[in-house]
Amino acid sequence: MRRHKRAIGVVLATLGVACVIAGCASDPHRGYVWGSTYSNTVSSVSVPVMANETFAVGLELQLTEAVVKEIQRTTPWVVTNGRSADTTLRGTIVGVEYERLSGAPGTGLVQEQAARVEIRFDWMDNRTGETLVSRDRYTATSVFVPAAPTGERAEIGHRDAIQELARDMVRELRSDW
């Protein structure tokens, strides 16, 4: 009897785990599958250094590095250089803005501020020349506290917005489902 209960427990636990780790299929007609939601027709991605049309120097390098790391971390694809890759992901930082969220009651100095970074990007198939994904006015916002005692610099807001943009950009590369 004890062995029977144990076997039932193992079967239920296995079914529970299977239900939790199953994901949506990249093909909506297939329902749930064990595979990735990223296209299996792509095996490599080239990510050239992003362009930067703003005066915020260095954000293009931070965004490129964050996107490469996110692709390596979350997708089955290999990041390579140049046209030998199946696809190319190009992007441009088109805006960096700051918004005052709160001020000190006595002085009016900024206590909380939001940094907003706006980009546009295109994901191209190098084999066919087809645009797989194209997004314009894609933004992320992050809050930082420049006031004492924390005294955070704008780079803190930039870094967090860049990380969010990288995660969101790579999520946009998933297959339609």
How would you describe what is shown here?
The chain has helices spanning 2-21, 59-74, 154-172, and strands spanning 23-24, 32-33, 44-46, 51-52, 78-80, 87-103, 110-125, 131-144. By secondary structure, it is an alpha/beta fold. The protein folds into two domains: 1-35; 41-172, ABC-type transport auxiliary lipoprotein component (Rossmann fold), CATH 3.40.50.10610. It is flat and about 70 Å long. A hairpin with a 5-residue loop joins strand 7 and strand 8. The chain starts with a helix and ends in a 5-residue tail after the last helix. Strands 3, 4, 5, 6, 7 and 8 form a six-stranded mixed β-sheet that branches. A two-stranded antiparallel ribbon has the order 1-2. It contains three helices and eight strands; from the N terminus they run αββββαββββα.
Keywords:
177 residues; alpha/beta; Rossmann fold; 2 domains
Number of helical segments with 4 or more residues: 3
User: Within the CATH hierarchy, at the fold level, what is the topology of the largest domain?
Assistant: Rossmann fold
Report the mean per-residue pLDDT as an integer. Answer: 83
Helix/strand order: HEEEEHEEEEH
The percent of residues in helical segments reads 25-40%
Largest sheet entry:
6 strands, mixed
Please report the first level of CATH classification, the CATH class of the largest domain.
Alpha Beta
The CATH superfamily name of the largest domain is ABC-type transport auxiliary lipoprotein component
Give the N-to-C terminal Cα separation.
Answer: 46 Å
Structural class: alpha/beta
- Low-confidence stretches are none
> Can you tell me the number of structural domains?
2
Our estimate of the beta-strand percent is 25-35%
